[in-house]
Amino acid sequence: MISYIARRTIAAVILLLVVTAVTFGIFFILPMLAGQTADQLAQQYIGKNPTPEDIAAVKANLGLDQPVYVQFWDFIKGIVTGATYDIGPTTVRCDAPCFGYSFKDHLEVWPQLTERLPVTISLAIGAAVLWLVSGIVVGVISALKPGSFFDRAAMGGALAGVSLPIFFTGQLLLLVFSYQIPIFGRTYVPFTENPSQWANSLFLPWCSLALLYAAIYARLTRSGMLETMNEDFIRTARAKGLRERNVVTKHGLRAALTPIVTVFGMDVGLLLGGAVITESVYSLHGIGEYAVQAIRVNDLPPILGVTLLAAFFVVFFNLVVDLLYAVVDPRVRLS
User: Fold this and answer.
1) Confidence band of 329 (pLDDT split at 50, 70, 90)
2) Domains in the chain and their CATH numbers?
């Protein structure tokens, strides 16, 4: 088990380095290959009508006049040890982990990310609990009663949930339950200030996300359970006299969880990198909304920082999924 964890951890670190290199290439190398000069690339990091001195300073700060391998090394070193930027008469120190410095807002990217991260974490974790529990429960019941009224109604509802986009369901929930029937608040309240108001302000965003993802998980659970409940080990467990509840939960559901764990890890990792549409609809100042603001004004350092943070979450939760495989299916430890 220890060797399995070590192998997966090393693979995750290597994958994170590869993703960092690819991200660096997308933002710094591909524009050069497309014919963009170092001056044109530096101009994208500052405001409108920059002076030649401003462009030269940004180009020197980002090392755009250096060879590619030097730029990539400085990029990695800045994340680990921090970086110093010359912004004219003064210099600015970007402490580690330095995910960049916005020359338009004159703010470090990492503090902006950490300030908004609790909102995104609250949104992602709360919605994940809702869609995981509801999706698995509905999927199991549908699989145990295939063709019944509940099964048809649940799968029909799942199809509707997958088909309806979040910007539609989100606006509809806001219209009904915040404006016409003011049950839920429209302003985010931190958990540390008031836990009940925190849950009240996030309930509608949780439902919007959970409606989409629960439909997918219900269909995955149903198909997995239908396949598993016809296996020989299920018939053996019943022949031994085990109660049906134990057969379903300890044998059938556990064997059907592997694809659900895989998808769940990916979904949570992506959401922690920013639920762009949901945060925009509900005016939540999270990571996704931060990325949207940066894209609108073409502020590349925040976009780069959000991309790296999202990549970290995806790689991290992929590692968690690999470790959970060993718990769900002990045979994975031998692979």
Assistant:
1) low
2) 2-98 (no CATH), 110-334 (1.10.3720.10)
